[in-house]
Design brief:
The structure holds three protein chains of three kinds. Chain A folds into four domains: 2-108, no CATH class; 130-272, no CATH class; 302-398, no CATH class; 406-466, Alpha-Beta Plaits (2-Layer Sandwich), CATH 3.30.70. In chain A, α2 (18-24) runs parallel beside α12 (214-225), α8 (130-149) packs parallel to α16 and α11 (192-209) runs antiparallel to α12. Chain A contains 22 helices and 15 strands. By secondary structure, chain A is of the alpha+beta class. Chain B is of the alpha/beta class. Chain B has two domains: 24-94 and 107-266, 3-Layer(aba) Sandwich (Rossmann fold); 278-326, no CATH class. In chain B, the strands form two sheets. In chain B, strands 3-2-1-4-5-6 form a six-stranded mixed sheet. In chain B, strands 7-8 form a two-stranded antiparallel sheet. Chain C has a single domain, classed as 2-Layer Sandwich (Alpha-Beta Plaits), CATH 3.30.70. Chain C contains three helices and three strands; from the N terminus they run βαββαα. The radius of gyration of chain C is 17 Å and the shape is elongated. Chains A and B meet through α3, α4, α7 and α20 of A and α2, α4 and α9 of B.
Chain lengths: 467, 340, 75
């Protein structure tokens, strides 16, 4: 799941111009975060070049990679070039000096930089602990999700959040309120980390409208990823843009501030796990500890599964959270609700309902396997193959016919005429279907105009040559 | 319809061009044998080496946010895990550190809690490794060290393997592991061959690459080269013998030893070894072509040991067997052929 | 001069094509041209109608346990 957010933040970074990227690389925290987003071969190459004052010869890089993995090398080089970390001359590769200097600073430290956040020296009179931060993050985040699904929870998110949901296309205005869209449904099925990144990327896009410097925004986001949970940080290190961002981030539950005028803020678990793997990678020993100590709620750290799926398509979900039940209701026909569990069945109608709302079979299957009960995860196949296959078949059923708008060209005088015109259409790339036997072919709507003109020109040529 | 088949047929991607992004656990074993470091003081000082090692650890942690590290130090008296420290030790150490800030040698600045200009993950690891390593170096008895020539490489390797076993296999976290051995060769160093080789075989079974970085001027330890070769690790001799200088340790570490286990199949490993696979006598350390083999532990000897005991497994050979070995081959008397 | 007709190209498998031809036999305003076993040209405005009718015909042939249960409790 984290690879999805990687791709989208990568795309965003690759779209930035070189000057912006260089400014971005002036912060060591950002350099470190961008470094971690790179593919493995790129990271190894860069590490070897950081302490090397001379540029590296292209021949050396070629010699390093085995011939069978050439494609890997080419992809890596392309990516590094797009991010303006590498500039390639005839025979040498030079690493971006700002990036080099600041990544080195991140590794070696000592340089008085504030990009990793400045913790507060003074004691907080109203100190909060990790459990409080977790609870706060959960309640804020679930409030947003509940609002999207439509379960009434009493509170609605602030205007800033509503604005963001509208702009990102996750919800659309309808008759005085907001209604969830297809994209919104897909958003609900993602895991928490991916959801936060989707919102943050939308926020980035919006920030350009609002005249906020994207470099500041990105720096702050990457800094949040490197903060320590439970430690309060002072606002003195933040720029104006970043202080402004703090208000919005408070609404999402990513940071906690006692009140808007507070001089310190606490990052929550949502912030510290921004740049790490899916929430808490719990080991067997840690899970035992947590179970006996009865700590953190499981809805934020989405690592405890609760869904059991049987081969007869019946589903049992051990949850009480109205949010998760609402999400399940999207594609499961829920039948009974108990104190600690809901049961239902996955059938054709429920899956078709989800499919018609824009959710794909892949998303359903991924959601089920991510939230599968630990006992299911221990088996050879996490989900029963029969159910998985059937969901995919139901999706295939939905599109048994593929319809494309176009023009049918028929009634050619002779085979040569047919051949000329159809070859022309093929070269243009607008040919959808051809049947040489019947001398007919179909082209797209857009291409038909050009084909008609080609035919006219050809006929004129023939007429003039005949005369 | 095969496209929707849900039963997982583990078709291996023959091209295998996508790299799996698993985090990795690096076990660094550092030679803390003070006399050896004294020998190469002119080439590189201990504090420079430790600084290079810390930067390397930071680089490893930077590669992936779930990467972890395990640092072990060894000297003549044994091996000890320096990082991660036993829980409880860390808090007492930081308190002690704040109280007496000058307990470290070479005038190192005591790392302050206020200094948060470094990434928190790096900072904690660096501080602990630094203090523990200095403690280990300071508390060794210099005189005793010079007398003893044992080196606890096998102990250190066992500790590393045990740690890896617990954290990767028992806890079932999705990690790959590797071991880096940073050794300063000592000319009179004796190692326990069999325990060390057992550790190497265990590493081979678990597919843990063992890399060796040798700093000192001592001769190439053949068993270390064999270790790297059998586990597909990297062996590098950074000493003035090979016209390299240990002062550039950080660059060697960052370019040669930084590659993850998941990346290794795709790159050409910078290992330098012409591994000498020839057999060597356990007594005289010479290469033998024809010799004697102990029937219990299979150790090779070029001559019969004087005390009639095997040097490695200590079995006594009976007189009769040894006498039989000295015999020359019997000559069969040729029967005279009488021509008719 | 060759003729150009505006329409919608339908790609499907032969069984579905047979179903569409069947629908067309009662309502003669759907199919413009049958191209081959797996392709048809149909009238642009009839696409939705065809899809709905297809879904209905296919649903008739699928076993739905819910309906069975509903019928059982109803009766």
């Amino acid at each position: 799941m984290t690879s999805q957010f990687k791709n989208s933040i990568n795309d965003y970074l690759e779209g930035l111009p070189e000057a912006v990227l260089t400014r971005l690389y002036q912060s060591p925290a950002t350099c470190l975060a961008v470094f971690r987003l790179l593919p493995a071969l790129a990271r190894t190459l860069i590490m070897g070049m950081i302490f090397n004052p001379d540029p590296i010869a292209v021949a050396d890089v070629d010699a390093l990679v085995k011939p069978s993995s050439q494609r890997l090398k080419l992809e890596t080089q392309k990516k590094l070039r797009l991010l303006h970390i590498f500039t390639e001359t005839q025979a040498h590769i030079i690493i971006n000096p700002t990036f080099k200097k600041n990544l080195r600073a991140a590794l070696v430290g000592g340089d008085q930089n504030i990009s990793f956040g400045v913790p507060c020296d003074t004691e907080d009179k109203h100190k909060v602990d990790v459990a409080f931060l977790d609870a706060h993050a959960v309640s804020q985040w679930e409030m947003i999700l509940h609002f999207m699904v439509g379960t009434s929870i009493g509170r609605t998110p602030s205007d800033g959040v509503l604005n963001l949901l509208k702009h990102s296309g996750l919800m659309e205005p309808e008759r005085g309120g907001l209604r969830i869209t297809n994209a919104g449904f897909q958003f609900l099925l993602q895991d928490v980390n991916a959801q936060i990144w989707t919102l943050l990327l939308q926020y980035l896009n919006m920030s350009e409208y609002l005249q906020m410097d994207p470099v500041d925004v990105l720096n702050f986001i990457f800094m949040l990823g490197s903060l320590e949970l439970g430690q309060d940080y002072s606002l003195s290190a933040l720029s104006e843009t970043q202080k402004h961002m703090l208000e919005d981030l408070r609404d999402y539950g990513i940071v906690y501030q006692r009140k808007a005028s507070s001089r310190r803020f606490y990052p929550t678990r949502l912030a510290t796990t921004l740049t790490s793997e899916t929430a808490a990678l719990r080991t067997a020993s840690q899970s035992m500890e947590a179970a006996t100590q009865d700590t953190i709620s499981s809805s934020v750290a989405a690592d405890s599964g609760f869904i059991i799926l049987e081969t007869n398509f019946r589903l049992y979900a051990y949850t009480e959270s109205p949010l998760q039940i609402a999400v399940l209701n999207l594609f499961v026909n829920l039948k009974t609700r108990f104190a600690n569990m809901v049961t239902g069945q996955i059938n054709r109608d429920s899956v078709r309902f989800a499919l018609s709302n824009g959710i794909t079979a892949e998303q359903i299957i991924t959601y089920l396997s991510v939230h599968a009960h630990p006992r299911m995860k221990g088996m050879e196949h996490v989900l029963p193959p029969t159910v998985v296959d059937q969901i995919k078949l139901w999706q295939l059923e939905m599109d048994r016919i593929r319809a494309t708008d176009g023009y049918l060209f028929s009634e050619f005088k002779n085979f040569d005429e047919y051949k000329d015109v159809s070859t022309y259409a093929k070269e243009l790339g607008v040919l959808l279907y051809e049947n040489p036997g019947k001398r007919k072919f179909v082209s797209t709507l857009a291409g038909s105009q050009q084909i008609v003109e080609f035919v006219k020109r050809r006929n004129q040529k023939h007429r003039s040559s005949a005369n | 319809m095969n496209a929707i088949d849900g039963t997982s047929r583990q078709l291996k991607d023959t091209e295998d061009q996508t790299l799996d992004d698993t985090p990795s656990l690096l076990s660094i074993i550092i030679d803390a044998h003070v006399p050896s470091w004294e020998e190469i003081k002119s080439q590189i000082s201990i504090s420079e080496a430790v600084a290079s090692i810390l930067v390397f650890i930071n680089a490893h942690l930077a590669l992936h946010n779930s990467n972890s590290v395990n640092v072990i130090g060894y000297n003549a008296s044994g091996a000890r895990i320096l990082y991660p420290p036993k829980s409880g030790v860390e808090s007492t150490r930081s308190k002690e550190r704040e109280e007496r800030s000058e307990s470290v040698s070479d005038g190192e600045q005591a790392p302050s809690k206020k200094d948060h200009s470094m990434y928190r993950q790096f900072k904690t690891v660096d501080e602990v490794v630094q203090t523990e390593l200095w403690n280990m170096l300071n508390h060794t008895n210099y005189v005793e060290e010079e007398k003893q020539h044992n080196s606890a490489i096998s102990g250190a390797l066992s500790l590393a393997l045990g740690f890896i076993n617990k954290h990767v296999f028992v806890d079932e976290s999705r990690m790959r592991a590797r071991i880096l051995l940073l050794t300063v060769g000592h000319k009179n160093e004796t190692i326990q061959y069999i325990p060390t080789m057992n550790c190497i075989f265990a590493a081979q079974k678990l597919k843990i690459p063992v890399d060796v970085c040798k700093l000192g001027p001592g001769s190439d330890q053949v068993f270390l080269q064999q270790a790297c070769d059998s586990t597909h690790g990297i062996y590098m001799d950074i000493s003035e013998k090979n016209s390299k200088t240990p002062k550039g340790l950080v660059q060697y570490l960052l370019s040669g030893f930084i590659s993850d286990p998941s990346l290794r199949p795709h790159i050409v490993l910078p290992t330098q070894s012409n591994v000498d696979f020839r057999a060597a006598c356990f007594l005289t350390k010479q290469v033998v072509d024809i010799g004697y083999v102990c029937s219990v532990c299979l150790c090779i000897m070029s001559q019969i040991p004087s005390n009639r005991r095997c040097p490695t497994c200590d079995t006594t050979y009976s007189e009769k067997t040894l006498a039989g070995l000295g015999r020359k081959p019997l000559k069969k008397k040729k029967k005279k052929v009488v021509k008719p | 001069m060759p003729k150009a007709t505006r329409g919608v190209l339908i790609e499907c498998d032969p069984s579905i094509k047979a179903l569409i031809v069947n629908i067309d036999s009662s309502q003669h305003n759907i199919i413009l041209d049958e191209l081959d076993d797996t392709h048809l040209m149909i009238h642009p405005s009839m696409v939705e109608v065809v899809k709905q009718k297809l879904n209905k015909m296919l649903a008739e042939n699928t076993y739905n346990p819910n309906e069975e249960a509903a019928k059982a409790t109803g009766k």
